[in-house]
Write a structure and sequence with these properties.
The chain has 502 residues and is α+β, with helices and mostly antiparallel strands. The chain has a domain at 174-500: 7 Propeller (Methylamine Dehydrogenase, Chain H). Helices cover 13% and strands 32% of the residues. It contains six helices and 29 strands. It has helices at 2-16, 27-35, 85-98, 107-120, 344-347, 480-489; strands spanning 174-177, 190-192, 197-202, 205-210, 216-221, 229-234, 240-245, 250-254, 259-264, 271-277, 280-285, 290-294, 301-305, 312-317, 323-328, 333-337, 352-354, 361-366, 373-378, 384-389, 394-400, 405-411, 416-421, 428-432, 437-442, 449-454, 461-465, 469-473, 497-500. Strand 3 (197-202) and strand 4 form a beta hairpin. The radius of gyration is 45 Å and the shape is elongated. Residues 1-7, 10-17 and 38-75 have low confidence and may be disordered.
Amino acid sequence: MAHFGFENDIHSILKLDMPITNAPMARWQRKASSSSAPALNGLSPGKSINVSLNSSKTPSKTPGKNKKQTPSKMGGDRFIPIRNSKQMDVASFLLTKENEPVETNNSAQSSENQKAWSVMLNGYNIDDAKILHIGGKSLNAPEGYQNNLKVLYSQSATPASVKKTRYISSTPDRILDAPELRNDFYLNLLDWSSRNTLAVALHNSVYLWNASQGDIILLMKLEREEDYVSSLSWTKEGSYLAIGTSDCNVQLWDVENQKRLRSMAGHTARVGSLSWNEHVLSSGSRSGHIQHHDVRVADHHICTLTSHSQEVCGLQWSPDGRYLASGGNDNLVYVWPRVQQGSVSNARQSVCSWSEHQGAVKALAWCPWQPNILASGGGTSDRHIRIWNVNSSSCLTSFDTQSQISSLVFAPNYKELVSAHGYAHNNVVIWKYPSLTKVAELNGHEDRVLSLTLSPDKSTIATMAGDETIRLWKSFELDPEKKKAKERRGISTSSVIHQSIR
């Protein structure tokens, strides 16, 4: 049995050395046949054609040697396992013929000749040959066919992809002269009411400027010349104005009747910051104390917050009334909970406290569309805008503005943040929120900008500076193209309107 198996193995090896007649041509055989293709150029139908597809040379194998064969010496094409020999003959012939120039007059006759030649070559019709054919007209798409991929590669700009640029004027709409304006970084002497009235403190007096009509009235004046107004804050309805003074008092005024309703004592130093939350008025003092007042009752004092060790120069209630943010000259930022009757002790515990700033924190602003987001700005030693998440007590963004920050406000019309600066830039900058990329710079003040406030329609900001001027910038109009068209026509908006606040 073993001997019989050995004979079978010898027999199979001998068969491998015999020519393989039914296998596809090797690559060297196809090259040999293609070299004879020019001889076919002079043939014409009717003559007998004898093309030999075999050669006397066959690839040799040497038993016992592990010699790697190149693909050119291997039998057949291992990448395309099925190859019809008739297709290869016709393809080789057609590729040779199509490289020759064809006269236009004999194009029809040439096509017929090619068909006749292909039939003679092993009786194969080129119309049935499945080969790659480059040339000719592309096929038309079926009627009603739509290619959805055209949308991806369309070069025409769609309305959604067109970038709309906003025009922001580099000059203010109006300049108000404010003589005897106190150039003190820690004071808050400017506020704009929901009834479109701007309140300005000039030394020991408070003036009201009606932004709709341009009328100016003197609301109050302190009795003693050495005293001065140190802070202002409108109620949400815009009918009452709270005034902090250097003699440690907080006054409440009925603006419509120009009458002082009450004066609330309790602080031991000047009141430099004020903020309303419905009927509760919060006041920050130079002593570092914050007091809550219920203005509806005679016994107005609710509680006192004593965490700051230096002057409280920034004070802002959140739009939803849940939190009070305070900033001081001790470089600290605190967030306090809402004051509720019967839970005074809880109000004295801060929700968050941050010490990352390296300068006085006067600039505070709550985001109107994200009530848990607070922005704060540091003084000359810090110069950073920091964005805080009150819920997580984390700092989301910290950005160096390279200039002292005196005030911050969010502009909801375009979801931007506006900052007022002192040394060294003395300007106003509009930032895109939350990326804090610079949108525009508003220059023109000749001294440090002390405060800024936003108009009730959120289209205009008023800035107060140490150069004793108040400038109004219409930087957030919802249709700024109208103003740009007016300036092109030379209408009065191109010239700044000057007016004195008193």
